[in-house]
Amino acid sequence: MLTIEATIDRMRNFNISPAVPGARRRAFAAALCACGLLALASGSVSLAAEPAAAPNAALGSIAIRNFMFEPMSLAVAVGTTVTWKNFDGEPHTIHSIDDTFRSGALDQNDSFSFKFDKPGTYRYACSIHPQMVATIVVK
Amino acid sequence: MSNDDPIVTSRRRALRCLAFGGAGTLFTLAGGVLTPMDLVLAGTDRKSAAAAGVPLFVQISDTHIGFNKEANPDVPGTLRQTIELVNAMSVSPALILHTGDITHLSRPEEFDTAAQLLSQLRVTELHTTPGEHDVADATVTEYFNRYGQASDRRGYYSFDHQGVHFISLINVLNFKANGLGALGQPQLEWLEADLKGRSASTPIVVFAHMPLWTIYEPWGWGTADADQAMSYLRRFGSVTVLNGHIHQIVQKVEGHITFHTARSSAYPQPTAGDGPGPGPLTVPRDQLPKMLGLSSVTVQRYPNSLAVTDTTLA
């Protein structure tokens, strides 16, 4: 799992970025809220956020920055919704090697979410830049 | 090097063009190799263009409609300039090949803008192959809905024009993690069958988006199973392999096969290994037109051995 420091770092990154439209924005607000709660629990940062869409919904977040997925390996529980956000000026995609999930091209500040309902190890890459590879482990 | 006037002349003109800052480059096809000439001069000097041979086709690449970052905020504008270069040629080529990355994000409105701009080309046929930026939509349908007919939505097909056999390949779908582009077994089998029985004297032009030889593996600049494709092509006397993807001219001659990557009409990229990774390269605004352009291929009507050693411009 993410450390609190990493979560706060990620949250700050999310917080300074412009909102993304539509469903992505809502998914993102939920992710922000979860980060906020974590941060509040640590007592270091306060954050005003919209109410979470679903109480106790498990969320994970991955930043895409400098042609890398951060973190490159993420372990989550079954039922977790993972959200990727692209901070690069170049577009990226999220494409699982076994085709379980696939985003469209994410422009700068675009997000993509996928809910992991089945346990397993999911390798994925950016189909535009296949040297960008990362893994999600669902338990 | 002095027994062939057209080539020497064209070299001088190409160099003059560089000094002048022109964006276009004309290539003559002679004995399977490409020789650079100056497209701007070709457009204004009917006599030298005629001496160089019959214009066969123009290659444009990596138009990236939808890109709007610092490296080039006006990508439609530079594509318009590229189209004007083609339309200004004194002898119009019959074909135009677009070697992919028509769009930046595979979005419908980007494809629509690109189609609108490309329709201004005064050529009769437009042939395309997709880049990875054209198949980046989640369902991989936008490109094929528009350009899939020629290949029955497979992405690879062939056709003949003026005695030259053209083969369009797709190497942006079967990507491998950490790896290069790939053609895949079904396409390789199709290629072998397509070439079987053809005379070795038939000039062949192959075009695909990603380079069909490994230019720089760490950046994915190559096609993993390209060697298999080349093994079917080696017996032919004149093979020209054209690619885009890397936004700069890199050439290699191997036997009768000439490999050539084209410039982009949108933005340059760093040379292989220069910096942390590939991507848009921001250069001083007045330098940008010198780094954008297109290629044009002309059939040379007599063999020319000089051209073998005279193929690099950039």
Structure, described:
In chain A, helix 1 (4-16) crosses helix 2. In chain A, the strands form two sheets. A four-stranded mixed sheet of chain A has the order 2-1-4-6, with helices on one face. Chain A contains two helices and eight strands; from the N terminus they run H-H-E-E-E-E-E-E-E-E. Chain A is globular. In chain A, 24% of the residues lie in helices and 29% in strands. With 139 residues, chain A is α/β, with parallel strands linked by helices. With 314 residues, chain B is an alpha/beta fold. Helices cover 25% and strands 19% of the residues of chain B. Chain B has helices at residues 5-20, 39-44, 46-52, 75-87, 108-118, 142-147, 185-195, 226-233; strands spanning 25-30, 33-37, 54-60, 95-98, 125-128, 157-161, 164-168, 204-207, 239-243, 251-254, 257-261, 295-299. A six-stranded mixed sheet of chain B has the order 2-1-12-3-4-5. In chain B, helix 8 (226-233) links the parallel strand 8 and strand 9. In chain B, helix 4 runs parallel beside helix 5 and helix 7 packs parallel to helix 8 (226-233).
